[in-house]
Automatic annotation (TrEMBL):
InterPro entries: DH_E1, PDH_E1_Alpha_Subunit, THDP-binding. The keyword Oxidoreductase applies. Residues 40-315 form the Dehydrogenase E1 component domain. The keyword Membrane does not apply. Keywords: Oxidoreductase, Thiamine pyrophosphate. This is Acetoin:2,6-dichlorophenolindophenol oxidoreductase subunit alpha. Pfam families: E1_dh. It comes from the Bacteria. CDD domains: TPP_E1_PDC_ADC_BCADC (cd02000). Its cofactor is thiamine diphosphate. Gene3D superfamilies: 3.40.50.970.
């Protein structure tokens, strides 16, 4: 890869990590006991994607705002990498009226028509809508693509298989991405899935399947580039599974008593690993590391300040936007 491209991937990973760490800080600000998930500045549950930055950065580097992305209940990294407005997204997470969904959706229900981004709290829910978007792109004769993201546990859902089957049958321009973070909430893949890799399932639908083992952003970038190019060329869908890493629990407050790998997790953090690689290659120096970190902090703190300035929805408007206008 060209140095500038490598630097772009690193910048994106730093921005995502900075955002997640800041949201974590704000999530616990003014919180009551941890079991009271409705209290504090940010209501509801919180699912963070720290450790999974390589997947979003590597995939979305090949996309434009005209392409579509459907993400999971752990959506921030893909939203940021796909260019969703950071201020409006943060306001939505804070439940404020200037948010993407006017504060009605929260962090698991981010919808941005400007970048064709959506996500859902229902696992594998994004696969069928991505197939529909890909069908629309194909019918219009464009080279736009849809990317559908899910976790390895959700690959056992019926929607996953139905989507792959129809996309393969119609040769639709869609890339299916599976984030294998080892734990489908609290169950390892080996206890729930009969194959060693979901990438093997692609063969059952006659499409290419690839697995990236080392959570390397450059490896993801290479494989995703081939899959996106195939889709744009009208050659049909691909399945890409990335063995990634969930640094924290399934949700914030998860005690993770089921995890046997916690002790070694910090040493597998992809961000310092990639930073060291770029420093050794001369793509980065200490001054650039500091500058990129400062720029990310400034941008994220500005988004948080915007969210905090935005008012909370008036309870009297609770039924607004629920029903279609006559």
């Amino acid at each position: 890869m060209e140095p500038e491209d490598r630097l772009g991937l690193y910048r994106m990973m730093v921005l995502i990590r900075t955002y997640e760490e800041t949201i974590l800080r704000e999530y616990h600000a003014d919180k009551k006991p941890v079991f009271d998930i409705g209290a504090g500045l940010i209501p509801g549950e919180m699912h963070l994607s720290a450790g999974q930055e390589p997947v979003a950065a590597g995939v979305c580097a090949h996309l434009s705002a005209d392409d579509a992305v459907t993400a999971t209940h752990r959506p921030h990294h893909f939203a940021i990498a796909h260019g969703v407005d950071l201020e409006k997204m943060t306001a939505e997470i804070f439940g404020r009226v200037d948010g993407l969904g006017r504060g009605r959706g929260g962090h698991m229900h981010l919808f941005d028509p400007a970048t064709h981004f959506s996500c859902s709290g229902i696992i594998a829910e994004g696969y069928p809508p991505a197939v529909g978007q890909a069908l629309a792109f194909q019918r219009r004769g464009t080279d736009r693509v849809a990317v559908a993201v899910t976790g390895e546990g959700a690959a056992n859902q019926g929607a996953f298989h139905e989507a792959l089957n129809l996309a393969a049958l119609w040769k639709l321009p869609v890339v299916f991405v599976v984030e294998d973070n080892d734990w489908g909430i609290s169950v390892p893949r080996s206890a729930s899935t009969c194959v060693t890799s979901n990438a093997l399932r692609a063969a059952g639908y006659g499409i290419p399947g690839h697995r990236v083992e080392d959570n390397s952003v450059e490896a993801v970038h290479a494989v995703a580039g081939e899959a996106v190019a195939r889709a744009r060329a009208g050659e049909g869908p691909s399945l890409v599974e990335v063995h990634t890493l969930r640094l924290s629990g399934h949700f914030e407050g998860d005690a993770q008593g089921y995890r046997s790998d916690l002790e070694g997790v910090p040493g597998r953090d992809p961000l310092p690993t990639y930073e060291k690689e770029l420093l050794a290659a001369g793509v980065l120096d200490d001054a650039a590391v500091s500058s990129i970190a400062a720029q990310a902090r400034d941008r994220v703190e500005a988004a948080v300040a915007f969210a905090k300035r935005s008012p909370e929805p008036d309870p009297a408007t609770a039924l607004d936007f629920v029903f279609a206008q006559a």
